[in-house]
Write a structure and sequence with these properties.
The chain has helices spanning about 15-20, 80-110, 110-120, 120-130; strands at about 1-5, 10-15, 25, 35, 70. The chain is an alpha+beta fold and about 130 residues long. It folds into 2 domains: about 1-70, no CATH class; about 90-130. It has a 3-stranded antiparallel sheet with strand order 4-3-5, with no helix packed on it. Bound molecules: zinc ion. Zinc ion binds near residues 5 and 10.
């Protein structure tokens, strides 16, 4: 939708999805900030973005100065404590799967006679492997 700064009348094209049910914008020309609300008649989506979004507005009209949303979203601290356990788990899973494959191959070789008796088609596999 088109919004204009109430202080200096500079107009901006702001994507509707960025406004949602309402959003604070700051005029890039005069630094005035004000609350932008969707025009009456347009129902805000039930899952509209909160007024404090994580995206910066894109697609503003060329020539118009950019309107920066206010305030900046607080950066969430990342939970780094779980990362080492996850890496270790992946490593253990990798070792376990390599070990399982190795055991399977060793078992195939060690019990080739028994396996050939129990499941004759496997003899073709052994023939291929020599
Ligand atoms: Zn302005």
């Amino acid at each position: 939708m088109r919004v204009s700064c109430p202080a200096c009348d500079t107009t901006y094209d702001v994507p509707d999805r960025l406004i949602g049910a309402g959003r604070r914008l700051r005029c890039a020309r005069c630094d005035h900030d004000w609350m932008v609300r969707p025009p009456p008649g347009t129902e805000p989506a039930p899952q509209a973005e909160p007024a404090v979004g994580t995206e910066s507005p894109t697609g503003l009209a060329a020539g118009a100065a950019e309107a920066a949303p206010l305030p900046a979203p607080p950066s969430r601290p990342k939970r780094a404590s779980r990362a080492p356990a996850g890496v270790l788990g992946l490593w253990l899973a990798w070792v376990a799967s390599v070990g399982a494959v190795g055991l399977a191959v060793a078992g195939l070789w060690l019990f080739r006679v028994e396996l050939s008796l129990a499941w004759p088609p496997i003899q073709r596999l052994y023939a291929l492997l020599g």
